[in-house]
Design brief:
Layout: H1 15-22, H2 25-45, H3 51-77, H4 87-104, H5 112-141, H6 148-177, H7 181-205, H8 230-238, H9 243-271, H10 277-286, H11 288-291, H12 293-323, H13 326-329, H14 331-367, H15 372-400, H16 416-425, H17 428-440, H18 448-453
Length: 461
Amino acid sequence: MVTPAPVPAPLIVPRAVRVGYGVGSVCTGTFSTVPGLLLLFYMTNVLAVPAWAAGLVVFLPKLWDMVLDPWVGRRSDHTVSRFGARRPWMLLGALTLPVTFALMFAGPPLTGLPAALYVAVCYLATATAYAFYEVPYKAMAAEMTDDYHERSALLQWKMVFVGGAILLSGSVAPAVAGDEVSGYRLMGLLVAAVLLASMLASFFGTARVPAPEAPRAPRISGARGAGPSIRAQFAEARSSGAFMPLLALGCAQMFAAGVLLSGAPYFATYILGDPGAVTTLFMCVVGPLLVTMPLWVRLSRRYDKRGAMALGSALFAAGAAGTALSGSLGPVYAHLCLLVVGVGYAGLQLLQVSMLADVVAHDTMVTGGRRAGSFTGLWAACETVVFALGALVLGWLLGAAGFVESGPANPVAQPEAAVAVTLYGGTLLPALFAGISLLLARRYPLTARTLTAGGVTPAGE
């Protein structure tokens, strides 16, 4: 008679550690929201930067992320310190990001292209500091426990903090910034303080993370320093069989969100005729994050995560397409459409995180290596670049349509073509890419059945 091998007890994450980890997403939620919502508009309508140049400023620093994020992830995979593998990098980000973020909105009295150059330099430094924190922070989630119930609880804490941070920063930051340089400077200082508090709280709150031991990922032949090139890391990622399909649908969704978010201030100003409406529009998109998480968990169990992801994409696409009729149907209709977008967006946010954790767990089971940092670095790099690409494309469309840059003291009437881009480019383009992500969801190979058969239980199930 053969005695079965004992099953190791799952790692239980203490509630204090769950909260300590979750509060760190106040930083990620705030940072992903405020520049995406305000930076393009700040340059074109406050600093009088041409729309094409403003779009480049938002986008070009993100190309640096394509190199930096995977490098940070790989380095954190191989870091050994008394603080663990991830936390030293988180502390480095906490000490640098608030300073660079505040400087981005507190420049000298410049306008036009000189102002664009100043913001670009500060934004590059800000993106660098943010990568030091974000990549190891996200990688930590896949390593804190090997039990799917614990991972689900951990991710729900994270999403609660993300939803609250996005909702508050997206509504408070525009109200504080207003349409004057002084308002944006004050907003930059307040957001910097929030970022600092969140990152330090997470650094100290994760001091007792019961991270499971995992073997180090082997170095690739010919690689030097911290790890292989970005091309080699993509080759590694393709070997998982699940990461690239998930990355493709995630990029389509992030591009849609980037266009929609960066277009919101223009939509409120030139379509609804009320710049202050950007706050209520944003609350419609983000508010469902706080109340629909249990619904999306149930839907992912009933239809599997792949089916729930397709449903979320369909809701996003339908709501965004419907918003294109707001010019004739009015602001109440626009808010209702964006509420539909928000319900779908909430599902996409939760499912992206959960499915990425499943991919990492599956890869560890198959390869026996630790590549959470590499995968998370590649994901973060592509996510930030594609999100910023949405603002770049919108800025170029506005510029091609004759959008006239201005300052707060001399607002100008925009040509009809620019107003049309604000309405249709900011709604139908996101709808198109959300629809593409719906089709791409069918190519994602991991399901509850395949993961269970392979010995891995899906995250969040």
